[in-house]
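One example given next:
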Amino acid sequence: MIVDDERDLCEILSFNLRSAGYDTDIANSAEEALEKIANEKPYDLLLLDVMMDGMSGFELANQLQHQVPIIFLTAKDTENDVLEGFSLGADDYIAKPFSIREVQARIKAVLNRTATREEHGILSCESLTINLDDKSIQIDDKNISLTRTEFELLALLLSQKGHVFSRQQLIERVWPKNVVVTDRTVDVNITRLRKKIGRYAAYIATRQGYGYCFEM
């Protein structure tokens, strides 16, 4: 998603990125971007301006708390601006004016670095591997025993890394329709899952008041 109050710039970026094979969306304010992130499918990357009317790009990044990779595209290019951007979790920082080819190269690099790999029924992150076909999980080449619910929770969170799932969304996606499940049940299963996956427990982040996500 391209987030910038310069409409012409958004259209130029969107056209060129679509021509390069990317699906794009546009928000002309940070507030609009927040609404889209809450209501649309998960985004793989934000191209985010800093200086906008209303909420700034820095404020938006602070609210998102690493939910989605961010590349700042901005005229604010002092050393302090760049450092602030990275302190808020930016994956890259590009000063205006810029070339489209540079933006495309930076996007490709960030997506390659942050993407969860999913090939031939395999989800993986570092040495954590989930085989969706035979329902097995390995960490450091060692098999990990999970219940069906724990397996489905981990696979869902890892498949959409950075996306925050509410407890209700997890219930709807993981548990059978005819089973009564409370928010507390979700929390208990997440706790048990964390205990079984060692150092990767820290990758399952709690977003207070929102839910859970898998983040690196």
Notes: The chain has a mean pLDDT of 88.
